[in-house]
């Protein structure tokens, strides 16, 4: 059961929050890194805001339930560390990442300016997750004009199946790289760019960035999440997987993420882009995600922009489920406390909205209304495969996935959602409309 009195109402375009950072809950979040420490969940994010000049120092928020967020403050009290500022001219810090080795918290930060590859990944440490953090200097830096080299931003620390830390990083022209980290220093064993694991023929409108790797021990795969395309319009989340943390990372069709011969939208399984249900304006440009494994549950954390005014950017947390053949699927609604539980087929018949997560669509995916029955003789029906695993047949297209109880953020009521993909690897998302 989801209780609406525990879920905060959206306050989109609320200018009253701009001057009061204590009201920055899910507002002004960009490039969020989600971590858990004890009973608290923390989000560290880029120095970005709308309507007010952003302060430098890495924004911190926390929550007990992944739903209600409160402002904490900044990781740095003195803004951009001196070495990073001298190399890049950065006015703020981007794309933080926080992990823990032993009893010390390590925060990786990026310094750069928009459109430049003169960039710097640095490291800071603290004995407390909320800081303050003390700068430990350079991890990796890149020089403007060296476009075959990785751009030194967007660091993520992931742990392999043996518990050893690795850093995946990079953006735009030089692609995405991974290198092994010494847990005693928090820095690479050997300074350098590591191994290339993903790349695109890119422009500002055809980016690849925001890498994040998570290992699923049940499936014995490493999953590489990346963000494609323009930060302000058609940003979208894609994924590939590998048996080896250093790759190769292959998508659903078996395409290597370093393949630059294929059309730019043909590589990477597209999980989420801009979308719109019938009620509400919808959202655009979801991306730069992190993934949290919390016990047996997985959550994706990303920023997203409001459709009417794309200057406003927000924090979204969504439940991740896994397909029968071992691919992640993202809920079409934000997390509201739902769990994976058996769902009775009879509860699911009726009016639904669904849409294809179209890999070629640079605009919002718009939902279509359908009536779902439980009769295989109908043109649209659901077939229960096991507990919450279902097959949705829409005019002969078979889409296998999972059903979850959820919260309808557009209509403000409990509902069910469906996440699935067809035999071609195309993802479909849906929610039930009627009671």
UniProtKB/TrEMBL annotation:
Residues 332-426 form the Extracellular endo-alpha-(1->5)-L-arabinanase C-terminal domain. It comes from the Bacteria. The record marks 154 as: Important for catalytic activity, responsible for pKa modulation of the active site Glu and correct orientation of both the proton donor and substrate. Keywords: Glycosidase, Hydrolase. GO terms for biological process: carbohydrate metabolic process. InterPro entries: Abn2_C, GH43_arabinanases, Glyco_hydro_43, Glyco_hydro_beta-prop_sf. GO terms for molecular function: hydrolase activity, hydrolyzing O-glycosyl compounds. Pathway: Glycan metabolism; L-arabinan degradation. The active site is at 31 (proton acceptor), 209 (proton donor). PANTHER family: ARABINAN ENDO-1,5-ALPHA-L-ARABINOSIDASE, ARABINAN ENDO-1,5-ALPHA-L-ARABINOSIDASE A-RELATED. Belongs to the glycosyl hydrolase 43 family. This is Arabinan endo-1,5-alpha-L-arabinosidase.
């Amino acid at each position: 059961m989801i209780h609406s009195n525990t879920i905060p109402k959206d306050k989109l375009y609320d200018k009253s929050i701009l001057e009061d950072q204590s009201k920055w809950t899910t507002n002004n979040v960009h490039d969020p890194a989600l971590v858990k420490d004890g009973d608290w969940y923390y989000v560290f994010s880029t120095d970005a805001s709308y309507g007010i000049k952003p302060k430098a120092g890495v924004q911190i928020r926390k929550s007990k339930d992944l739903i209600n967020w409160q402002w904490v403050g900044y990781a740095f009290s003195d803004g951009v560390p001196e070495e990073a500022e001298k190399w890049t001219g950065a006015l703020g810090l981007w794309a933080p990442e926080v992990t823990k080795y032993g009893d010390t918290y390590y925060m990786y930060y990026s310094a750069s300016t928009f459109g430049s590859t003169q960039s710097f990944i640095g490291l800071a440490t603290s004995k407390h997750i909320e800081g303050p953090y003390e700068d430990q200097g350079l991890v990796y830096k890149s020089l403007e004009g060296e476009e075959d080299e990785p751009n030194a931003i967007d660091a993520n620390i992931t742990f392999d199946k043996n518990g050893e830390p690795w850093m995946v990083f990079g953006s735009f022209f030089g692609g995405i790289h991974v290198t092994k980290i010494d847990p005693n220093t928090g820095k690479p064993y050997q300074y350098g760019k590591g191994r290339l694991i993903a790349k695109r023929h890119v422009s500002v409108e055809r980016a690849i960035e925001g890498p994040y790797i998570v290992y699923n021990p049940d499936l014995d795969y490493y999953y590489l999440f990346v963000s494609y395309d323009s930060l302000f319009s058609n940003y979208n989340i894609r994924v590939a997987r590998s048996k080896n943390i250093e790759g190769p990372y292959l998508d659903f069709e078996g395409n290597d993420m370093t393949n630059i011969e294929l059309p730019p939208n043909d590589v990477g399984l597209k999980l989420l882009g801009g979308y719109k249900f019938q009620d509400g304006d919808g959202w655009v440009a979801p991306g730069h995600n992190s993934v949290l494994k919390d016990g047996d549950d997985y959550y994706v954390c990303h920023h997203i922009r409001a459709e009417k005014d794309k200057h406003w950017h927000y924090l979204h947390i969504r439940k991740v489920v896994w397909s029968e053949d071992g691919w992640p699927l993202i809920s079409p609604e934000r997390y509201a406390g739902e769990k994976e539980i058996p769902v009775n087929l009879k509860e699911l018949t009726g009016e639904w909205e669904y849409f294809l997560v179209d890999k070629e669509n640079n605009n919002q995916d718009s939902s279509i209304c359908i009536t779902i029955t439980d009769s295989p003789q109908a043109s649209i029906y659901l077939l229960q495969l096991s507990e919450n695993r279902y097959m949705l047949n829409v005019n002969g297209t078979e889409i296998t996935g999972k059903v979850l109880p959820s919260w309808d953020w557009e209509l403000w009521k409990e509902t069910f959602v469906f996440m699935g993909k067809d035999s071609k690897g195309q993802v479909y998302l849906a929610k039930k409309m009627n009671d």
